[in-house]
Specification:
- The complex is a heterodimer of chains A (112) and B (118).
- Chain A is mainly beta and 112 residues long.
- Helices cover 0% and strands 49% of the residues of chain A.
- Chain A has no helices and 11 strands.
- In chain A, the strands form 2 sheets. In chain A, strands 2, 4, 5, 6, 9, 10 and 11 form a 7-stranded mixed sheet that branches. A 4-stranded antiparallel sheet of chain A has the order 1-3-8-7, with no helix packed on it.
- Chain A is globular and about 40 Å long.
- Chain B has 118 residues and is mainly β.
- The N and C termini of chain B lie far apart (41 Å).
- The chains are: A mainly beta (112), B mainly beta (118).
């Protein structure tokens, strides 16, 4: 079974610029999550989708972060404008009903 | 919301020794407790999980115990090997019922860097 695909793997941008990350979940997985993992910390949930609807975005900094999953499959996470403290690995995960969450390799963002 | 505390932050053992990592959680409604292993630059991978209706679960050299009353759970690795070296994360979630969604909506601990010396 193919895993969760994310791109790009690495991204370096200057503060105040915008950036977008892409995620393709495992086929058939209705639930998709975006996590932010700051160096030395555990992942923190940013947003959860069920098909193309948002289930939980309570920890998403909505003044600068946005996410969508228009067709209930792929998802994009955008940051605009980026701040230095946004430097982190952004992990996408997906799950199917009562199964565990499977994580992608992540996108490592460096804001300079 | 849920808060998960994990200890120790670093753990160094000799090959063949046992390693124990402990976590506590705050939300008594949490009912699913997975453990993830993350090697440097790689994705977190599930190594074992336990649900709240079970007190202990074992898979070869890895075991997890859960004490619902005290709200803590632990990972035990026996006969450690150098390839066990990684960062280990505990997590908690609430599946089902009011406010519960799925096993992937996780609150993670801070992580434990395990180093197994040959």
């Amino acid at each position: 079974e193919a895993g969760v695909a994310q791109s790009p793997r690495y991204k370096i941008i200057e503060k105040r610029q915008s950036v977008a990350f892409w995620c393709n979940p495992i086929s058939g997985h209705a639930t998709l999550y975006w996590y932010q993992q700051i160096l030395g910390q555990g992942p923190k949930l940013l947003i959860q989708f069920q098909n193309n609807g948002v289930v939980d975005d309570s920890q998403l900094p909505k003044d600068r972060f946005s996410a969508e999953r228009l067709k209930g499959v792929d998802s994009t996470l955008k940051i605009q404008p980026a701040k230095l403290e946004d430097s982190a690995v952004y992990l996408c995960a997906s799950s199917f009903q009562n199964t565990e969450a499977f994580f992608g390799q992540g996108t490592r963002l460096t804001v300079v | 919301g849920e808060n998960v505390e994990q200890h120790p932050s670093t753990l160094s053992v000799q090959e063949g020794d046992s390693a124990v990592i402990k976590c506590t959680y705050s939300d008594s409604a949490s009912n699913y407790f997975p453990w993830y292993k993350q090697e440097l630059g790689k994705r977190p991978q599930l190594i074992i999980d336990i649900r709240s209706n079970v007190g202990e679960k074992k898979d070869q050299r890895i075991a997890v115990t859960l004490n619902k009353t005290a709200k803590h759970f632990s990972l035990h690795i026996t006969e450690t090997q150098p390839e066990d070296s990684a960062v280990y994360f505990c997590a908690a979630s609430r599946r089902g019922g009011a406010g519960g969604t799925s096993y992937g909506k996780l609150t993670f601990g801070q992580g434990t860097i395990l180093t197994v010396h040959p």
